[in-house]
Hints:
The complex is a heterodimer.
Chain A lengths: L1 H20 L2 E14 L2 E14 L3 E6 L5 H9 L6 E6 L2 E2 L10 E4 L11 H11 L4 H14 L15 H13 L5 E5 L7 H18 L2 E6 L2 H7 L2 E6 L2 E6 L1 H6 L4 H6 L4 E5 L2 E5 L5 E2 L6 E11 L2 E8 L4 E7 L10 E5 L5 E4 L5
Parallel strand pairs in A: 3-8, 3-9, 6-7, 7-8
Antiparallel strand pairs in A: 1-2, 1-4, 4-5, 9-10, 11-12, 12-18, 13-17, 14-15, 14-17, 15-16
Chain B lengths: L1 H28 L16 H8 L1 H34 L4 H14 L2 H14 L6 H27 L2 H8 L4 H29 L3 H6 L7 H9 L5 H28 L1
The complex binds adenosine-5'-triphosphate (ATP) and magnesium ion.
Amino acid sequence: MEKAFTSVSAFSKCNEGRIKMAKTVLELQQITKSFTDKTKQTEVLKGIDFSINEGEFITLLGASGCGKTTLLRIIAGLESADTGSVLLEGEDITKKEPYLRDVNMVFQNYALFPHMTVAENIGYGLKTKKVPKKEIATKVQEMLELVQLEGYEKRMPDKLSGGQRQRVAIARAMINQPKVLLLDEPLGALDLKLRRQMQLELKRLQKKLNTTFIYITHDQEEAINMSDRIAVMHDGVFEQVGTPNEIYYQPETSYVASFVGNANLYHKADAVYAVRAESVLINETECTLDAVVIEKSFAGGQLRILFALSDGQKITASRFGIDYDLKVGEQAKIGWKEDSAVRVIANEN
Amino acid sequence: MKKNSLLSTIYLWIVTIILYIPIILTVIYSFNDNKSPVYWTGFSMRWYEELAHDRSMKEALINSLILAFSSCGLSILIATSAALAMRKRESKWDKIITYLSTLPIMIPEIILGMVFLGVFSFMNLPFGMLTLIIAHTTFCIPYIFSMVKARLQGIGTQLEEAAYDLGARPFRVFWDVTLPSILPAILSGAILAFAMSFDDVVISIFVTGASTNTLAIKIYTKLKTGVTPEINALATVLLVVTIAVILLSEITKKKEE
Lengths: 349, 257
Ligand SMILES: Nc1ncnc2c1ncn2[C@@H]1O[C@H](COP(=O)(O)OP(=O)(O)OP(=O)(O)O)[C@@H](O)[C@H]1O
Ligand SMILES: [Mg+2]
């Protein structure tokens, strides 16, 4: 037992060492940004501090309007930060023009040039850098192969499906082999099935080319599936940055807990605990809380049962399947194992 | 339902015929062998031949073309750069400037003509091609400006941002992305402006000199001495040119979509 424990910690130490060894590609220091809109000023970014290692897949997760796109645009140079700096491989690029930055962006609605063919679109970044035509052609072919669009080079963007456009957009950015690739909800417009397929392809591409990705998504599953680390943005700062496991199982704040995977927030005395719906037990020995079923709903392959506790707090439990033998209005005892409740800092009302 | 649509079809046809009868008659009588505008005595191209041999007509045509092309060219430059400049920064003056710039379309031509006359006399400009071009450029600008402005609003800035992001410098972005996106709008605006310039009479009469005639002025002055078949032929030529130009504009618009 003892031995197993030390070997695990030795492994994690070695892992840590590896991460520390990894080269920092991008560093954000105290980035702030406000927008003035008809005399009303809103501070969107309130001091973002962050650094990203080479080859890492980072996902920015946060509610709509929290400033994810703004942050990406600041890194790309399409927007300027009010204060703070952006370092790319140690070089301060805060004031550098976007066309001089070794960073590329995949826009949410692709932004393909409508008057250029697929091949011209993909090769555009090399053309601006005055790469010889022949070399561009070979590289475009390689890229087309990589995104599985061979034979489409002469097509115009408006004759492509959503998924194909998406691939062109990704190829157009990746062909430049940027130090960091920024992706603003690149799969947002695709249907679920295509999305799952594209997620796998993107991840495969990212590993293959060992490109650093900063990825925005609204989809928690996508974030958890693809990322090395997730940064949860809230109120203009990164509220928590960590591996999907850390974010999911060890949320630091109530906001992170409820935003990622909709954990229950259970208030007891002055403390707040996050309890995942799947960890809520019903009528088992650990169960000590009196509850009434007030709603049942089926979504995403799971039945969600909403309970009201005697003190008015609401707790959701989830179970696989489409029904559970508890009716709305029925009494039950609920509870959870001690270690499935994580104490969090309360910052969500 | 069917009856209804039949009725409305008939109604449409009647309206169309009433509207277009004068035009159709003009076209038909331009091929009339007889000098009379009433009796049809046979098909002939003689009025077109006469037109072709009329030196003053040729001169007027050349003047009209020079005028239309140069005022179109100038207004393309001015209107496009104005629309581009206005996009860069948002100011409360934008609305006023936009409104003012469309005024030449809304002000009655006769008033515009008088204003030009006043201004040019005050400036002591010699009346002729120069004053014609200035005046026509002024009323051509709004057509192009409004189209380019709408188009710029429609395309947003994302394509240009994508180009910047891919390493294109400002001039390259303009050349590779902005210009191709607004070109259809420039063209359809310019074609419309061309048609406007080509058949303008009122303003031209005010600002032209004694020796500079345009085709449109020519028709107008000839009409004073009565409708001749030659005028019919000339009107037909103008009609064909105008329709062709407007069709072209529609086609470029379609392509834009
Ligand atoms: N150019 C601008 N002028 C004024 N306000 C802006 C501008 N751009 C963004 N904002 C504001 O800044 C905030 C953050 O915008 P941003 O686009 O970064 O959000 P986001 O996190 O990407 O949201 P979403 O997930 O919906 O895309 C929003 O409240 C938005 O209204
Ligand atoms: Mg966004």
